[in-house]
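Deliverable D2.4 — example input (structure tokens):
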């Protein structure tokens, strides 16, 4: 979910409001500084060094003064005598704030950004190449999350949390419709959605703009299609497999009419997307684990299950999450690495688990009580081992949240035929990949 506020884009939620990029970014520059002197070992290069660090993240993580990330920074400061300032920006503004600051010669030492934004920052040398530092510990993280942070063989960030897309289904609504199990194939999903649609109730949820374009990719992958060609320089999503998947996806609304027309208004946040499922007007939706906490808060009594996405030619889902990198403005990269290696270490998984109910991007989490003790998290964690990352190309954000978002809107607004819109989007995406 590139979370413009996944996987995506694939992924996240702010305090009380889900962000578009996801899964995965902060109310205008609130800062908190934790400065305490003590001794300690962070387990990485930079341990025992004195100095100051500034970390920029979204309010998803930075939040208010009591957020888990701020508390963690305070703990690290207390143990290592390092000043760690955590500053947050609104999700939709973070990447622009980072690039503007770094281009101007300023900016933070460390950034926590959506995995889909790492290629852009890495290719422009705004992030430090961490390949040699990460190589000895890369096996500790899900391969997909490492791949998402790697551009042309160089890895520019350490995976932090991971997410992917699964299917949420309303057990009560299924029961009333006489459907005994969630769908496992496209045909099953369509049949169930049609049966669950009637009156003011609908079977399936979609999103508009970038939400819709992001959630298309799993369908493409499930049909055996590819997003880009093997060279990464040409769009491949308009292949016969892509056209079939795109038509099936679009026709859930256009011809099958199993989607509430109000989905056209899902343009600003995942909150808008989740609302119909939360209020039991829609029986099924695809989303990442960032949707779980809002559902628990908004409708604690909601009876729903989480299962892998229905397959077609194969099973597939899209990987998202966030990663932590050292910027070109870092005054002391070793000091920054010390904090990052500590924050992404096994001992700090509790920061994500307790503070955000997020799944760490570490492979050891699959056997943890945090995952095995929760059926929903177990599905997401199991999918994390095989989830596919989006292409690691610098222009990906422009393609997913620009080209594809516009193409999707033209289709659902019935301004352009699905196949024509997809073909035009592929041509535009290929042009962007060429740098034109």
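Example output (designed residues):
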């Amino acid at each position: 979910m590139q979370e413009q506020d996944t996987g995506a884009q694939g992924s996240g939620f702010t305090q009380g409001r889900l962000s578009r990029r996801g899964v995965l970014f902060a109310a205008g520059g609130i800062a908190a500084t934790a400065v305490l002197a003590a001794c300690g070992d962070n387990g990485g290069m930079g341990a025992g060094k004195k100095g100051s660090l500034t970390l920029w993240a979204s309010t998803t993580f930075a939040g208010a003064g009591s957020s888990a990330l701020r508390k963690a920074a305070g703990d690290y400061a207390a143990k290592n005598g390092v000043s760690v300032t955590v500053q947050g920006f609104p999700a939709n503004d973070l990447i622009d704030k980072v690039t503007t600051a770094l281009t101007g010669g300023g900016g933070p030492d460390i950034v926590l950004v959506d995995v889909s934004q790492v290629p852009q920052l890495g290719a422009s040398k705004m992030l430090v190449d961490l390949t040699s530092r990460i190589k000895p510990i890369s096996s500790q993280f899900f391969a997909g999350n490492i791949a998402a942070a790697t551009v042309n063989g160089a890895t520019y960030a350490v995976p932090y949390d991971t997410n992917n897309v699964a299917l949420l289904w309303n057990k009560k609504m299924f029961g009333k419709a006489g459907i005994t199990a969630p769908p496992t194939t496209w045909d099953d999903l369509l049949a169930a959605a049609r049966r669950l649609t009637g009156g003011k109730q609908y079977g399936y949820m979609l999103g508009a703009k970038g939400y819709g374009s992001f959630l298309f990719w799993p369908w493409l992958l499930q049909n055996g299609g590819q997003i880009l060609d093997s060279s990464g320089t040409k769009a491949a999503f308009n292949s016969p497999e892509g056209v079939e998947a795109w038509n099936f996806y679009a026709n859930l609304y256009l011809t099958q009419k199993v989607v509430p027309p109000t989905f056209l208004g899902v343009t600003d946040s995942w909150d808008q997307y989740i609302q119909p499922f939360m209020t039991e007007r829609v029986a099924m939706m695809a989303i990442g684990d960032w949707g779980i906490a809002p559902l628990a808060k908004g409708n604690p009594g909601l009876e729903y299950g989480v299962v892998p996405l229905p397959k077609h030619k194969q099973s597939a889902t899209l990987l998202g999450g966030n990663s932590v990198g050292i910027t070109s403005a870092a005054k002391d990269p070793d000091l920054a690495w010390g904090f990052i290696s500590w924050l992404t270490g096994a001992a700090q998984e509790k920061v994500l688990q307790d503070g955000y109910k997020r799944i760490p991007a570490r492979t050891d989490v699959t056997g943890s009580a945090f995952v095995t003790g929760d059926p929903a998290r177990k599905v997401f964690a199991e999918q994390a081992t095989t989830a596919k990352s989006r292409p690691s190309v610098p222009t990906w954000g422009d393609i997913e949240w620009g080209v594809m978002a516009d193409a999707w809107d033209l289709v659902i607004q019935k301004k352009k035929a699905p196949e024509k819109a997809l073909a035009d989007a592929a041509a535009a995406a290929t042009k962007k990949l060429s740098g034109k």
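The mean pLDDT is 89.
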